[in-house]
Design brief:
Elements (H helix, E strand, L loop, with lengths): L1 H8 L25 H18 L5 H21 L1 H4 E2 L15 E2 L4 H21 L7 H13 L4 E3 L6 E3 L32 E5 L6 E5 L4 E3 L6 E3 L15 E5 L6 E5 L4 E3 L6 E3 L4
Antiparallel strand pairs: 1-2, 3-4, 5-6, 7-8, 9-10, 11-12
Length: 278
């Protein structure tokens, strides 16, 4: 916008009409050397486009062009010879032998000055000046927004961000909230060899209790020796495997693994990962 205003200004009046001079010949800025400002406007626009596309140090050329164009405007506006109006002679040329009048500046100088200021401000913006103002506050607001975000939460152990619904941190294994209850091992079944059975004495028919693994005893009533048949042996029960429940840090699926397992493969997503400590 600044370069466009500078380019348009060269076609606007340099001086205003004043006194007896109701009409002024050759009054545009370009007719008083303003064509160079048009070239600077094109250069400023080109360097501004380059800076906006990320090209290094293009904003410097834009700022240099604005500085030179501003100096030309100051020189042109302060030169009273340029703004002195003389009566026109019969041949159509200005009669400099007659007393002249210094006319006030026209709209061209003001439009060009505004364009130079706007272009310089744009160059400084592209350079990053002023972008750090309030940066600390913006960073705090961004962090607060992340901490309050329903999609993520911070692990209090390793400070990494994980899914809000995750129960176990995938980075360090930290458990959020209450720990997952462990699966209590079932008590082993009674030893069939230690169970008791009824035994009848062959001498006095007395009935008494004896262990399954006893094959020879004496009657409590008559003292006779009683030989017992060997009890039926049952198959030893399979050892009980202690398990615990864990959750996958990828899909959050819950599953049971051995209590001593250090790694496991998720049955839902197929990912292999380290099991959190029990």
């Amino acid at each position: 916008m600044g370069a466009a205003a500078l380019a348009i200004s060269v076609f606007l009046p340099l001086t205003e009409r004043t006194g007896v001079f109701s009409m002024v010949q050759n009054n545009s800025l370009i007719q008083h050397g303003g064509w160079i400002l048009l070239l600077f406007a094109i250069g400023i626009a080109a360097s501004g486009v380059g800076a906006s596309q990320g090209r290094s140090y293009q904003w410097i050329w834009c700022l240099v062009g604005c500085t030179i164009a501003g100096a030309i405007l100051i020189y042109t506006g302060s030169d009273e010879n340029t703004r002195t109006l003389y009566p026109v002679g019969p041949d159509g040329a200005a009669d400099i032998t007659q007393p002249g009048v210094v006319a006030p500046l026209g709209i061209a100088i003001y439009v060009a000055g505004a364009g130079v200021v706007a272009a310089a401000a744009g160059a400084l913006t592209l350079a990053g000046f002023g972008s750090d103002l309030g940066g600390d506050d913006e960073e705090l607001v961004r962090r607060w927004a992340e901490e309050d975000s329903p999609a993520k939460k911070k692990c209090p152990d390793c400070a990494e961000r994980v899914l809000y619904d995750a129960r176990v941190c995938k980075h360090c294994g930290y458990r959020f909230g209450d720990a997952i209850p462990k699966l209590e091992p079932k008590p082993p079944p009674p030893d069939p060899q230690a169970a008791e059975r009824e035994v009848r004495c062959h001498n006095c028919s007395h009935v008494q209790q004896e262990a399954f693994n006893v094959t020879l005893t004496s009657c409590d009533n008559c003292g006779a020796t009683v030989k017992l048949p060997r009890g039926k042996r049952e198959a030893a029960p399979a050892p009980t495997v202690q398990k615990r429940f864990v959750r996958c840090s990828i899909c959050d699926a819950e599953q049971a693994i051995r209590a001593t397992a250090q790694r496991f493969t998720c049955g839902k997503c197929g990912e292999t990962m380290t099991a959190p400590p029990a």
